[in-house]
Amino acid sequence: MDAKVLIESFAEFARSKNVDRPTMIRILEDVFRAMIRKKFENDENFDVTINADQGDLEIFRIREIVDDNSEDIWDLDKISFAEARKIEPDFEIGEEVYEKIELEAFGRRAVQMARQTLIQRIKDLEKDILYSKYEELVGEIVSAEVYQILGREILLMDGDGNELILPKAEQISKDRFRKGDTVKAIVHRVDMSNGNPKIILSRTSPIFLERLFENEVPEVYDGLITIIKIVREPGERAKVAVESYDDRIDPVGACVGMKGSRIHAVVRELQNENIDVINFTENLDLYVTRALSPAKVSSITANEETKRISVFLKPDQVSLAIGKGGYNIKLASRLIGYEIDVFRELNESEEEDVDLREFVDEIDSWIIDELKKTGLDTAKSVLSLTKEDLTRRTELEEETVDEIFRILGQEFDQ
């Protein structure tokens, strides 16, 4: 393989990978200089000129002519007077000899290795470019097409044919994709695995929801409305605290849109995830009240040292505060940064009920705490539920739930 064929084939391959000309020339020179060092030990006295467009390569070895008896005659950048005269009869001592080195002088095996090295360098460069590209896109939305569905992840292809990964853990539980579907997600992170960039996407990250709001709500994109915090149970429920520094803008109304037009687009993308948009406030009591919406709170007691809040509600509001699967109260707690304990306001007919703390000798305190977190603070409030509801709401084991019902039931049997 001559230099022209080698360079032209490399240049064509490099252009197909969108490698710019200066980078292409630099890689070619690096590889040829590596060949020179392998054959001649040093490349400092060599001049390499490459014209990638024409496929031209010129390698010149530059040496200074010294006397045949000189001590420097063995230096790599020196040549004896007698040897120089064989190249050109009229050379004189002290002059420089420019000796052209043909590619064939390196040997067929070295040239083949150079070709493989050039291709590998481009592939490595392509990986670096891909890594840098997606490293800058971390936290941004991308669209890609599903091309393979595996048990633990979905493989997608972007517009340039790069592989992206959407792990099962980063998918919304209701997501159902088929080959050829276009998927929106954010770039969650970019890892390097055995020298290959691994691009991980996410649809469960709060940042994904934030980017969707930016796309659908111009005031958020322009910075007129600020998203203070987002908490999610992906595919089920989310709470978004927003604030506007312009009194003329209603941040909640702007995010929801006329007849819900803006938020509906976000909800559809998130597989009908229920999204509560809340107006942020520094007033803790008001913030808690808004966070627990649609439940109506009667009174609130906060303990800043323990980061716990006791919320009192009428009996018919407790289930609203807790929400389906306990999501409403869990998300409200995460949004405000306090643990919320829900208590029912007792009316006269409930005075004969028994507080769960009275059973601390028979029921472990951590179990009572779990029950209170979901608004179950009395024996009758627990017994009003079915065993299946209690298991689902608290995630306690069935045996534990059975024991709770037995202990509480005995109290009223007596």
Automatic annotation (TrEMBL):
InterPro entries: DNA_repair_Rad51/TF_NusA_a-hlx, KH_dom-like_a/b, KH_NusA_2nd, KH_sf_prok-type, NA-bd_OB-fold, NusA_N_sf, S1_domain, TF_NusA. Residues 139-204 form the S1 motif domain. PROSITE patterns: S1 (PS50126). Gene3D superfamilies: 3.30.300.20, Nucleic acid-binding proteins, NusA, N-terminal domain. Monomer. Binds directly to the core enzyme of the DNA-dependent RNA polymerase and to nascent RNA. Belongs to the NusA family. Participates in both transcription termination and antitermination. This is Transcription termination/antitermination protein NusA. It comes from Algoriphagus ratkowskyi. The gene is nusA.
